[in-house]
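Collaborator request, handled under Task 6.
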Amino acid sequence: MLKKMLYVLGVALLFAFSNAQAFDPGSVAETKAAAEQGEAKAQYYLGARYYTGKGVPQNYAEARKWFEKAAAQGYAEAQCDLGVMYNKGQDVRQDYAKAREWWEKSAAQGYAEAQYNLGVIYYEGKGVRQNYSKAREWWEKTATQGHANAQCGLGLLYAEGKGVRQDYAEARKWYEKAAAQGYAEAQFLLATMYYNGEGVHQDYSEARKWVEKAAAQGYAPAQFNLGALYHNGQGVRQDKRTAKEWFGKACNNGYQKSCNEYRKLNEAGF
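Structure tokens returned to the collaborator:
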């Protein structure tokens, strides 16, 4: 069933949003009052509340209005999140060029989330000519700041040999940094390296260790691969009932291939 664990392309490519409403120390009324008086931080916090719907009804138009006010004052987080709205087309026409423009303003101030997002668009070639070297440059800037998404993305570039000479040892180094922060995709990719013996001695037990960590966070590809390890008896005692359980979890998380394996085991009486 699982002859080789495959990398899931794009695992590191979710755009980063600052989500600073979690750190808003004031009440909605206090934040709104300060925002109306022109305080950039409060304007940003208020925009984040409207974006996420925390303490106020979710309203992308209001979110954009307040992000724009804060961004006009040079507030890096607001510039970054305004870029996310343009990238996703939330209350604006989707505009990758506009997203890049705002991310560049934010990244110029050293804001890690914006630097990471610029790496993503260069990796994917959205609104810019695809350029893996540029993606690496931006991800290196933010990976060294401890940004787990960027560390994982940088590892992916080294594993694939895109924009750099293929180097599994360097890929593993960056995956390990992200995995140590609990980043499920990096844990999954580390498991992949150990299963396939890419830059490391093939070790099914080590693969199981890392894939279990990712699966426990609900990462469907990892849940499927963990099921496959139990199905095949690789790194664990063969146990098709446990395999079925993990296939079921991945299926519930939308991983269609896992649904097929669950059905096969169910029909076989497991």
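The cover message to the collaborator said: "Confidence is low (pLDDT under 50) at residues 3-12. The radius of gyration is 21 Å. Please let us know whether this matches your experimental observations."
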